[in-house]
Batch of 2 targets.
Target 1
Amino acid sequence: ENDILDKLPLRGKKILITAGPTYEAIDPVRFIGNHSSGKMGFEIAKASANLGASVTLITGPTHQKVNHTLIHVVPVVSAQDMYDAAHKYFNTVDIAILSAAVADFTPKEVSSKKIKKNHSTLTLELTKTKDILESLGKIKKQQYLVGFALETNNELENAIGKLKRKHLNLIVLNSLNDKGAGFKTETNKVTFIDDKETITEHQLKTKAGVAQDLLTEIIKQIDA
Ligand code: CTP
Ligand code: CA
């Protein structure tokens, strides 16, 4: 009935996206976080919805805003919250793109009271968080699973290691080496590696441009 909408390449597809940082509580007023702006994940969500997909966007604390009928935003705070939300939605989606900068470590104990400065040093014990992406790779059925890799050295080798270890269909290597690429910038320089280890290098682009390239690549791969 609606020819134009039927031609949207992701119409009828459900996509799960994670975005932003996570905050790991130390005490009632402090946390461990990182500089992720959430922009990359939000751009992927918008580009997906504009191609007709129904998007669940699980996001850590960020200033990003989106208002789109096809995007359902699920705000979370900690790595554990994000893990729980991702597992809640994963079974029902066709594609999952995990772009969040999840904390790798979290305080072993959260102090119920504000920590006072009445000592000269303070040691926090941290424990490793659950790897959300790896855990989804272990249970995935038909889902097309995409991860990111943020690397500063041995980039290709490390990214391919993550692709294999986490059972991904595609990994987006984000180079922090390049000027104008990374966390707080408006642009990214990415390389895609698929499960056949085919490597596609892209130019430095806006995050919206990277999102377009990524969805074009995913559509190509799921149609192949
Ligand atoms: N990731 C995740 N859950 C975590 C840590 C990472 O889902 N607890 C995901 C990220 O969203 C990203 C991918 O795993 O898609 C790779 O994250 P990255 O930080 O580059 O790699 P790690 O596997 O955490 O390893 P390291 O930080 O030691 O390089
Ligand atoms: Ca990490």
Target 2
Amino acid sequence: KALQKMRDDRPKSLAELNAVIAASEPLVLGAMLGATRAVLGEGPTDAEIVFVGEQPGDQEDREGRPFVGPAGQLLDRALAEAGLDRRSLYLTNAVKHFKFEMRGKRRIHQKPSLSEVKHYRWWLMAELEFLSPRLVVALGGTAALALSGRQVSVTKMRGRQEFPPFAGFLTVHPSYLLRLPDAEAKAGAYRAFVDDLRQVRELAG
Ligand code: URA
């Protein structure tokens, strides 16, 4: 009976799943500070490629949309350079709530813990099952952890990956590029990121 109830309660569409996520209590620490809401995935539900980030940032939390802050703007530029149209992609995050720490008046991003990533993993996998994309792109280690259930080194594993049951690709997170202090290193890392996105386009094409 309990099993039957679990089956009956399971979201039957992406819209139902998103309603559950939106109504959920945030698990991440930032939630204790009260300003956080769930940022849901965005894009066409028949997208061939789904990009998975880490978690919404300050601006995403305010606007309620994924990848609209500085990392999102960098991603937009790189996507366009690689010949990918953001509007044809589905963008979502491993963790759906912004985790932060107050520093003065600023909300500073905090990396989600292993248990937080695991907590949100069920939602991510359910979301992907509804979307059933041809390729899932992990942006950074947290996304790869959420997709594979284990720690993944981006440096060692960058490139084609399986994220069962999906074909996948692992690359860096755009905020890693923003953080590189040296202009030359940054430019090189950005070119490598655009090259990865070109491969993504070819793999999904
Ligand atoms: N970084 C992410 O990982 N996701 C967002 O939505 C924005 C920034």
